[in-house]
Amino acid sequence: MSAVIRVKRVRPGARLPRRATQGSSGFDLYASLEAGDVIVGQYPVLIPTGIAIEAPPGYDVQIRPRSGLARQGVLCTYGTIDADYRGELMVTMYTMALDIEHRIQDGDRIAQIVVSQLAGVVLEEAEELTDTERGAGGHGSTGR
Questions:
Q1: Residue 138: its pLDDT value, please?
Q2: Which residue of 57, 79, 96, 101 could cross-link 63, Cys pair, CB 3.0 to 4.6 Å?
Q3: How many CB atoms lie within 10 A of CB 24?
């Protein structure tokens, strides 16, 4: 049986998330702009989606960039929507360079949400960790 994520429109005319194709892992999020277009530049801008969700406990909902926008240098920050959050989903968007501006219009696809089940883990404090070949090497320590 599939898990159910309930979606509520919190702005008139907001579009519900949907998969672009049957094989898509993400559900597209759409801009819900009441005051006209928004220009996205190098500084982060919050774009409203007009929806709130209710994810079941034990599920992780992440906001991720769309590859089509990323190809143009337009990104959004990754975001995690906790199962107990009920506010409007907002997408933080920006461009990768000073000379890139992107106009967001009402109804534009701006990001996607991807849903996964959380692993049932417990964090445990330890005095020591087991040794590995890599050890504490990080940030490029395993090669290019």
A1: 77
A2: 79
A3: 12
In angstroms, the CA 52 to CA 120 distance is 26
The region of weakest confidence among 29-33, 41-45, 99-103, 131-135 is: 131-135
Tell me phi and psi for residue 134, to 5 degrees: -75, -40
From the centroid of its chain, how far is CA 40?
17
The gap between the terminal CA atoms of the chain, to the nearest Å, is 43
pLDDT tens digits along 69-79: 999 999 999 99
Taking the C-alpha atoms of residue 26 and residue 48, their distance in angstroms, rounded to an integer, is: 18
Going along 15-101, which residue ranges are E strands?
Answer: 26-30, 38-40, 45-54, 59-64, 74-76, 79-81, 88-95
Q: Which amino acid is at 23?
A: G
**pLDDT one-digit tens code per residue, 114-142:** 999 999 899 999 999 999 988 887 777 66
Fold classification of 6-117 (topology level): Deoxyuridine 5'-Triphosphate Nucleotidohydrolase; Chain A (2.70.40)
Residues 6+ apart with CB under 8 A from 109: 28, 29, 30, 66, 68
